[in-house]
Amino acid sequence: MSIEQALALTSQERTAELDLEQLRRLVGLVEYDTGADPFPVTGWDAVVWSVGNATQAALLYQAVFGMELVAYSGPETGNRDRHAYVLRSGAVRFVVKGGVAPDSPLLDHHRRHGDGIVDIALEVPDVDRCIAHARAGGATVLEDPHDISDAYGTVRIAAIATYGDTRHTLVDRSGYSGPYLPGYVTRTSSAGTPTGAPKRIFQALDHVVGNVELGQMDTWVDFYNRIMGFTNMAEFVGEDIATEYSALMSKVVASGNHRVKFPLNEPAPGKKRSQIDEYLEFYRGPGAQHLALATDDILQTVDILRARGIQFLDAPDSYYSDPQLRARIGEVRVPIEELRSRGILVDRDEDGYLLQIFTKPIGDRPTVFFEFIERHGSLGFGKGNFQALFEAIEREQAQRGNL
Ligand SMILES: [Fe+2]
């Protein structure tokens, strides 16, 4: 496979009319030589959620997050076990599933984990090659490669297990033109875009963070290196990132073209329970902690989401007045006051800077949340903000009585 193929647009990106230059800017897409890649990945296919009420969650993602409903599967389409709604914003595809039949396995998952991510599906050009490599490396193959077809064509699909009860479905959809997968029908939004609102408020998925148990971070870094051919990115968070009470360690692995980036966190010993421990307790094990959604106008994104009721973590006021931090940030595209009034954080490295903000947990458990990120050259993840973020998260934890 050539470099051109490695930088091919995914079907979602084509539908969203994104181009490679936009993706370089939004998510730090890079060129690479796929010749030596044992597990070539084109990009994200979908983030699949199991939730307590998919019908309402689908409305939330439309009305608040501005996503577009594009496909559906459920009892009316012959799928008696569940409701599944497919939503998109730019290149981002969410599939939100909830159980209908009381004995649906989805409900077992939900009882254990609460609302969460069951599948981080990836688009690959050669499902069989990936599975052969994964199997040879000792990965757990949950679904062998097989074809599924309908009037729109055929997809080739397989799945491997990753941390916790999370899986990576691998999809080759080059022979398929339907709205999502066979079994789904086209369905359009009943929630219209409010007057004056932009078409979409985020464009692409930047990274998905996994929380794993103490001592397991390197195991999973090794899994992504060895099984999936991912490489380590420079960002490394060691035990130096700690507040008085809690700490984490983090490493980042990425697919060859850097579309798919997985920071992996494990708790580090602190005086009290860390946010990673809190997640592991309430999610009942390892799982996806946050999704970072890339936007080209984070100020507008935050203003819209706040107006629609989304709550963000507060940044400590000292964050913006601290002279050292101001010196580190340097010049950014808007006055610091614009960031301060919205609680947007800034981080800078040798390649540029990024603006980022984190929501509070979106479900009932203190587990999964979102990040919004606007990159300006930086390929980092906001390491410089961990301290400020930690302090903010710990204030929230203390309010919940979990610190
Ligand atoms: Fe992040």
From TrEMBL:
Gene3D superfamilies: 2,3-Dihydroxybiphenyl 1,2-Dioxygenase, domain 1
E.C. number: 1.13.11.27
Domain of life from the UniProt record: Bacteria
Record keyword Cell membrane present: no
GO molecular function: 4-hydroxyphenylpyruvate dioxygenase activity
VOC domain segment(s): 43-173, 204-360
Cofactor: Fe cation
A UniProt-annotated Pfam family: Glyoxalase
Keywords per UniProt: Dioxygenase, Iron, Metal-binding, Oxidoreductase, Repeat
CDD domains according to UniProt: HPPD_C_like, HPPD_N_like
Family: Belongs to the 4HPPD family.
Database matches in NCBIfam families: 4HPPD (TIGR01263)
Protein's UniProt name: 4-hydroxyphenylpyruvate dioxygenase
Organism this protein belongs to: Pseudonocardia acidicola
